[in-house]
Write a structure and sequence with these properties.
55 residues; mainly alpha
Length: 55
Amino acid sequence: MNALEHNSPTDFASDSSLLEGLYQLVVNGHTDGWEFEQLDSVVYERLKHAYAVTN
C-alpha cells in the first residue's frame, strides 16, 4: 500500500487530521513555513490521486 491508498478507517482519520492541521495553519496565518508547505503538498497529492481521471 502506498501513502495515497486507503484500506482502513484509520487512513481516513489520517486524512482528516491532515486537513485539520492545514486548516489550523491557514486560520492562524502560518502559511509561509515548512510545516504548511509539507501538509499542503501531501493533501494536494492525495486529492490528485483521489480525483484522477482514468482512461
